[in-house]
Amino acid sequence: MTTKPEMTAAEIASAVAGRKMSALDATEAALARIKQHDGILNSFTDVTADRARAKARAIDADIAAGKEVGPLAGVPFAVKNLFDVAGLPTRAGSKINRDLAPSKRDATLIERMEASGAVLVGALNMGEYAYDFTGENVHDGPSRNPHDTTRMTGGSSGGSGSAVGGALVPIALGSDTNGSIRVPSSFCGIFGLKPTYGRLSRARSFPFVASLDHLGPFARSVTDLALAYDAMQGPDADDGACTTRGLEPTLPLLANPVSDLRIAIAGGHFQKNVFPEAVEAVSRVAKALGATKVVDVPEASRARAAAYVITTTEGASLHLDRLRKRPNDFDPAVRDRLIAGAMVPAALVDRAQKFRRWYRAQLAEIFKTVDVLIAPATPCTAPKLGQVNFNLDGVELPVRANIGIHTQPISFIGLPVVAVPVPLEPLPIGVQIICAPWREDIALRVAYALEQMGVASAPAPRGL
Questions:
Q1: Per the CB 3.0–4.6 Å rule, which of 12, 91, 253, 312 could disulfide with 341?
Q2: 154 phi-psi bin (left φ>0, alpha ψ -120 to 50, beta other)
Q3: Model pTM?
Q4: The domain 9-235+259-304+344-452 belongs to what CATH superfamily?
């Protein structure tokens, strides 16, 4: 049996475990696709071919010996290059970090994926230090959209989006501080999960904003997304935010009915500053789910502003020494935002943190009356590479600053979200399925229902 680009992780794992395909064949097929297409997509910064082949051979040997293999046996995956990968310096999209010594140990989530049988094939392009919504890296070049290579992938997990959207690998891992999983998912037409803050370990990954950082998976199907998520769950003493929550498998729950769920459309801020394609995508999802109720999310615009304050000040604090010693080795746009963050008055940061507590309480009240909120993932489909502004209702708005307009108010308080791709023409766009803390199971169930109805799906790459 030979692998095809459209094979899901679940199909590959089943074929490998059932001896219809070897793990090495699955790995070689992924490496061949990377070699064929990554010159265009620029998804990868490092390809770990020798490591991948050694892991695949070990899986095949275990199967031949009759040993149990994990639920992701032989499945190729890749990670944003802010994950520690043993033997590689952790770039975090920067020039400066390339001078770091190679990591001695993998990130916790890589260890857990490989314990489930997955095969790491490389590290992925990203925006410098994750402070980016476009996927345009000044040091490594932009990752490119698999549906139109003249367009952005979104960021900062741009390489993760293009690698999965371009079917180079069935699963990739990324990070999301203000929208960096959901934005590439939307632009690249794939599924992405930003879990509850503290749900998945961040141990041995390069931080951006500790109080906002999340790690999570991308995939071309909801089943694959759940497979990866379940493999990575569990407490980890090496991450202070991820020490208490036990394993809560979601894969067996996907087919549960969603008709009893209370589903509403996020109003107010989430219905402003949107292009027609975002309105259409939300409308299709709402209609399929029978959602007509609109719930206003109070002060969501203010939440976005507060998220900016916390992001820029915490980020600046992390990078002060680098800013002093090597300012010219930063992407100028990233450097200038960090310098500005270092000058934000402490009183303003205190106000933002107090507001965050108030806003979290307001959303907790909303989730007493609804189970799911639907909102746009991005205001538009993928802009052109290098595009500075877009015109909305006659007003010129900066692209970089406004791509995350609908994601920031959600990650600000760490809510779980599945971004589902709606395959519009000519480009897909994502919709956020937002739930109360720790209810990833509900978000995945809703995403699965939409996939089964044909409303949400990952289109085949059109630009390759």
A1: 312
A2: left
A3: 0.97
A4: Amidase signature (AS) domain (3.90.1300.10)
Q: Could you tell me the CA-to-CA distances from 227 to 139, 153, 216, 219 in Å, in that order?
A: 33, 24, 12, 10
Contact assessment for residue 72 and residue 113, using Cβ atoms and an 8 Å cutoff:
yes
Q: Indicate the SS3 state at residue 420.
A: strand
Task: Indicate the average pLDDT of the chain.
Answer: 97
Return the pLDDT at 464: 86
Instruction: State the DSSP H helix or E strand holding residue 364, giving kind and residue range, or none if neither.
Output: helix 346-366
Residue 211 designated active-site: no
Residue among 400, 443, 405 nearest 134 (CA): 400
**Beta-bridge partners for 191:** 219
Tokens representing residue 350 in the block: 């205190």
DSSP per-residue codes, 2-42: ---TT--HHHHHHHHHTTSS-HHHHHHHHHHHHHHHHHHH-
**Identified catalytic residue from 143, 156, 160, 457:** 156
Give pLDDT tens digits for 181-193: 999 999 999 999 9
Count of CB atoms within 10 A of residue 183's CB? 33
Nearest to 108 by CA among 219, 202, 4: 202
Residue 404 near residue 133 (C-beta atoms within 8 A): yes
Give the separation between CA 242 and CA 233, rounded to whole angstroms: 10
Q: Is 160 assigned a catalytic role?
A: no
Q: What kind and span of H or E run contains 438?
A: none
Instruction: Please provide the distance, in angstroms rounded to a whole number, between the alpha carbons at the two ends of the chain.
Output: 24
Does residue 180 carry a catalytic annotation? yes
Instruction: Please indicate whether residue 1 or residue 255 has the higher confidence score (pLDDT).
Output: 255
Of 162, 180, 185, 221, the catalytic one is 180
